[in-house]
Specification:
78% of the residues lie in helices and 3% in strands. The chain is mainly α. It folds into 2 domains: 120 residues, no CATH class; 151 residues.
């Protein structure tokens, strides 16, 4: 009896981790902590005073971002139940494993915690976090089904994960802006590729994503153009990087991007686009890890 209860709890825990995209949350955590330590050289344990108590600022910022991102994934799945039943019927969790009301409750709870943690740091950080919660909700509720604008918003939010450091430290840094731009471009490419992967389900429910509004061929060309822009940006960055190890690592990123472009040129099936989406995520992680070499 006890073994069956443990097994059931483990099942729900694993499904919950999948629901909140724990891998993506891990990437957010990694990107922010590597940025703090290797890019802006900010003390990881530096605290801010809240009512006389010392609160670790970076931990609060990182946790708040992860809670807000998790809330964004929850509300996205909440609104996308019908579409997901067409695109990936065996992966639907909302309404099947977790009740819709429970998911909606967690969405509000996680947003509340995220904004509250920002409040511990400063009113400016709390306002920044509140803006992110609103934009994620607005995206899932309205913009996701609009051509390009939803993709751009998600890409902007991805870049804002590092711009938070400008808000937190009140100082700018060229590498923060570079990695924010890198996050923007790779996220934009991946979001459009995911729309190409899911266009059939989106079409059934009259979503006006790029592949439906423009057609697969034109969308394909746009992703190719954005990938070439990313290649050019990496080449340009290599010209002002002085350390040999950074040059070699950026060459590695160039090869990953070139491999993505090569596969993109011949991709024409749902499986191929799913593989491209995975490659885009690996490129993001590889870009984040390059911070260690700074």
């Amino acid at each position: 009896m006890q073994a069956s209860i443990i097994k059931k709890n483990v099942f729900y825990f694993r499904k919950f981790l999948r629901l909140v995209r724990v891998q993506n949350l891990g990437i957010i955590f990694l990107a922010q902590w590597l940025t703090a330590y290797f890019v802006i050289k900010w003390p990881l344990l530096q605290s801010v005073s809240v009512g006389g108590l010392a609160v670790p600022a970076l931990a609060c910022m990182s946790l708040s971002t992860m809670f807000i991102a998790a809330a964004g994934y929850l509300i996205n799945d909440y609104y996308d139940i019908k579409i997901d039943y067409v695109n990936r019927p065996h992966s639907v969790l909302v309404g099947r494993v977790f009740p819709r009301r429970f998911v909606l409750f967690l969405h509000f709870l996680f947003n509340f915690i995220g904004v509250g943690l920002g409040m511990l740091i400063s009113l400016k950080m709390a306002a920044f976090n509140f803006l992110m919660t609103f934009l994620l909700w607005f995206y899932s509720n309205h913009l996701k089904r609009k051509p390009l604008v939803g993709n751009v918003l998600v890409a902007v939010l991805s870049g804002m994960l590092l711009v938070q450091f400008v808000v937190l430290t009140q100082q700018s840094h060229k590498w923060v802006w570079f990695y924010s731009g890198f996050a923007f471009l790779t996220t934009l490419i991946r979001e459009i590729v995911k729309d190409m992967e899911d266009w059939k389900g989106d079409a059934v429910f009259d979503s006006r994503t790029l592949p439906i509004s423009w057609g697969i061929r034109k969308t394909h060309r746009l992703v190719l153009a954005l990938s070439i822009v990313l290649l050019a940006a990496l080449v340009g960055t290599m010209t002002w990087v002085s350390e040999n190890r950074m040059v070699l690592y950026f060459l590695f990123l160039l090869l990953l991007t070139a491999d993505f472009v090569k596969e993109l040129r011949i991709a024409d099936t749902k499986h191929a686009y799913a593989r491209l989406s995975s490659k885009a995520k690996r490129l993001m992680v590889a870009g984040v890890l390059s911070m260690i070499l700074l």
